[in-house]
Structures are given as structure tokens and as C-alpha cells.
Amino acid sequence: MHDPKFRMPVILDKQEESLWLSRDIGVSDLLGLCDSYPDEKIKAFRVSTAVNSTVVNKKVNNVPELMSPLNSL
Questions:
Q1: In angstroms, rounded to a whole number, what is the distance separating the alpha carbons of residues 59 and 37?
Q2: In this structure, are residues 48 and 70 in contact, taking their beta carbons and an 8 Å threshold?
Q3: Do 40 and 19 contact (CB within 8 A), yes or no?
Q4: 71 to 17, 38, 48: CA distances (angstroms)
Q5: Rounded CA separation 24/33 (Å)
Q6: First vs last Cα of the chain: how many Å apart?
Q7: Separation CA 38–CA 15 (nearest Å)
Q8: 60 neighbors 53 (Cβ within 8 angstroms)
Q9: What are the pLDDT digits (tens) for 21-55?
Q10: How far, in Å, CA of 26 to CA of 5, rounded?
Q11: Local structure of 72: helix, strand or coil
Q12: Collapsing DSSP states into helix, strand and coil, what is residue 45?
């Protein structure tokens, strides 16, 4: 989770994805896509610490279960 005062990932709606990936878009248009994502669309939950593992192991940190909530925040 990022502190929005310092940094925050860009979260795009489906209709914004193709614009973001376009080679013909200008910087000012890209910056226009960097607005705040609505709080009501974001869900936060704890996940396994294996998410942060730097060891590549298909049985440990490359499995769909890493996206499963451990418990709510």
C-alpha cells in the first residue's frame, strides 16, 4: 500500500488502458490520466508475505493464492 502523500500507482479504468499504451499520446494527456482513483472502487486486504519474496519459486510466489485475502484491514 502506498502513501498517497508521497506516491501512488496509476490505476486505470478499462477505457483508459488503450490510451495509456498508445504511442501517439502526449505527456499532458498522460498526466490527465493520473487522477485519484475513487475510494469506493478500491478494496484493501492483507496478503501473504510471499508476495515480497525475491526468490523465484513457482510453488511459493507465483501462485494465484497470493491474491487471496489473509484477513481484512
A1: 33
A2: yes
A3: no
A4: 30, 23, 10
A5: 15
A6: 11
A7: 15
A8: yes
A9: 999 999 999 998 988 888 888 887 888 877 777 77
A10: 26
A11: strand
A12: strand
